[in-house]
Specification:
six-stranded mixed beta sheet; globular; Methanol Dehydrogenase, Chain A; mainly beta; five-stranded mixed beta sheet; 5% helix
């Protein structure tokens, strides 16, 4: 089977299309010794060509050095390495440290933004932040209060700053940004507060707005073309979003954009997902609620949409559609195809043609998934591309004030934002998953700007009749649509994976273990317990000719919100507190970067 070249960044340069991309990002991500973007590369593969650490010697890993961030609560994302400098971020208040790798991690500069702590009250699921970006000699940070700031990468000096949202109405940020061309793409959080989702492109030179595309609403505000924007091979038609909502519900309809971006310079298309519709009570918003729960492909220069695919129409379970889209080239039926692979919260893994939006594969990546039997794959069917919902688990069909029990997965999905990785050597995707089910009772709720707009009570628990734990780490074949191997975990795997040319895959656990497994077989090769639960994304870099592995530990996020925020009511944290109550027996709050090496 043919695969994408070993480094997606190098491959994209060789296409000759790099004029569209940001040259500094392409240049720095093409250097295997660095980790210059949170996603590893524009393709979101989270793969490193470094191969000093192998399946034969990974068992000898030891801690090389550590760094305390000085902040508690959930540490998502990971550090960047550009040149001899490592850039480390924290959750709120989103401090940034520049560490000199040539001088024992000496702090070259620190950025400590002064944010109003009131923003914490309107952050949905902990005060997490998925990291900074690098472009054009700047470090770009999007703070919890939606301040977008560009810092000189060498000095930390503020080059420009702009406000992208309004926390007073529930708009916040937890995601990283994506520099593309002469712009930086920015999303918004707040679906649980009735925000109207969007992405905005700002000019890298000065922070001025270039374009804005909403997830819902009028065509002109969504930057769609009724005749040329496609959905499963058909034009979306005029007013496609407005026609799928009752009245003006779209104005507070969610579809927030707090996940990951990926980008294909050859097509000049950026890919991302939109979140759940608001409210969580489906009875209050009849219709498909377009274009929430949707993979979107847009022209990076203009923002105009090329194609959409709505994975969960009229979402009834909070299956946010924001997870990462991984770009690979593979052979299907004897033809090389430019593919996009998405592991959705709803428990289905999708393989699509990223140029046209054609749906090629849609299969469950956890056998516990029961809310739908399958996705209709017949292009001639009236329900083509739609999940076949099981009435027993339909919160809409069961109605308001009815507790629908035994729904799998839970609202936090078979996989949340914790990114998967891909190895061009094995052709497999390595996916951190949640093996969790729920009871879900919707109720009527009124909208008030800046107040929670949820409308459901949840409880969560491990999938029944299974291994007893709440997570698995799996290897997935995206062409066959099947699991190749699966490793059970006691708790959800809330850490981003890393695949390497040494045939080793790394990930972290909520108890705090960094684990290394064989990329071919899944055999566990190494395990080390860090000071706190790991919800950060493992990365690797090389300095002075030596390969290192690094990961942030600091328990929190949705799964760890009980520990992070000191919550005890089982229904708090949108149902997660009770589901993960036992986590406090294994770890405690922290905030530390741990770096690993092989002995000399």
């Amino acid at each position: 089977m043919k695969h994408l070249l070993n480094s997606a960044a190098v491959a994209l340069i060789l296409t000759g299309a790099s004029a569209y991309a940001n040259e500094s990002v392409l240049t720095e991500t093409a250097k295997p010794e660095q980790w210059a973007i949170q996603t590893g590369d524009y393709a979101n593969q989270r793969y490193s060509e470094l191969d000093q650490i192998t399946r034969e010697n990974v068992g000898d890993l030891r801690v090389a050095w550590t760094f305390s961030t000085g902040v508690l609560r959930g540490h998502e994302g990971g550090p960047l390495v550009v040149g001899n400098i490592m850039y480390v971020h924290t959750p709120f208040p989103n401090n940034i440290f520049a560490l000199d790798l040539s001088d024992n991690g000496r702090i070259l500069w620190r950025h400590t933004p002064q944010q109003d702590p009131e923003v914490i009250a309107v952050m949905c699921c902990d005060t997490v932040y998925r990291g900074v970006a690098y472009a054009d000699g700047m470090i770009i940070s999007h703070q919890a209060d939606t301040t977008l700031v560009a810092l000189d990468a060498m000095t930390g000096e503020v080059k420009w700053s702009v406000q992208t949202g309004d926390p007073a109405i529930g708009e916040t940020n937890t995601a990283t940004v994506m520099p593309v061309g002469d712009k930086v793409l920015v999303g918004v959080s707040g679906g649980e507060y009735g925000v109207r989702g969007r992405i905005t492109a700002y000019n890298l030179a000065d922070g001025t707005e270039a374009w804005k595309a909403y997830s819902t609403g009028p065509d002109e505000e969504m930057l769609v073309n009724a005749e040329t924007t496609m959905h499963l091979g058909e034009p979306i038609g005029a007013d496609s979003s407005l026609n799928s909502w009752e009245g003006d519900q779209w104005k507070i309809g969610g579809g927030s954009t707090w996940g990951w971006f990926s980008y294909d310079p050859d097509l000049n298309l950026v890919y991302y997902g939109t979140g759940n519709p608001s409210t969580w009570n489906p009875s209050q918003r009849p219709g498909d609620n377009r274009w929430s729960m949707t993979i979107m492909a847009r022209d990076a220069d203009t923002g105009e949409a090329k194609w959409f695919y709505q994975k969960t129409p009229h979402d009834e379970w909070d299956y946010d559609g924001v997870n990462e889209n991984i770009l690979v080239d593979k052979e299907i039926d004897g033809e090389m195809r430019k593919l996009l692979v998405n592991f959705d919260r709803n428990g289905f893994a999708y393989t699509m043609d990223r140029e046209t939006g054609e749906l090629l594969v849609a299969e469950k990546f956890d056998p516990a998934v029961n809310w739908a039997t399958e996705v209709d794959m017949d292009p001639e069917s009236e329900t083509y591309g739609r999940p076949m919902v099981v009435s027993e688990f339909s919160t809409a069909q069961n109605g308001e004030d009815t507790n629908t029990t035994g729904v799998c997965p839970a609202a936090l999905g078979t996989k949340d934002q914790q990114p998967a990785s891909y190895s061009p050597k094995t052709g497999l995707f390595y996916v951190p998953t949640n093996h969790v089910c729920m009871d879900y009772e919707p109720f009527r709720v009124a909208y008030t700007a800046g107040q929670p707009y949820v409308g459901a009570t949840l409880s969560m628990y491990p999938a029944p009749d299974s291994h007893g734990g709440m997570g698995n780490f799996i290897a997935w074949d995206a062409v066959a649509g099947e699991i190749k191997w699966s490793l059970p975990e006691q708790f959800s795997v809330w850490s981003g994976a890393l695949a390497t040319a040494g045939d080793v895959v790394f990930y972290g656990t909520l108890e705090g273990f960094l684990k290394a497994v064989d990329a071919e077989t899944g055999e566990e090769l190494y395990s080390f317990k860090t000071p706190s639960g790991i919800i950060g994304n493992t990365m690797t870099y090389e300095h002075d000719g030596k390969q290192y592995i690094a990961v942030l530990s600091g328990v929190g996020g949705w799964a760890g919100i009980g520990l992070a925020a000191g919550l005890t009511n089982p229904n708090d944290g949108l149902g997660a507190v009770g589901g993960y109550a036992a986590l406090s027996d294994y770890t405690e709050l922290g905030g530390q970067l741990t770096v690993f090496e092989l002995p000399d």
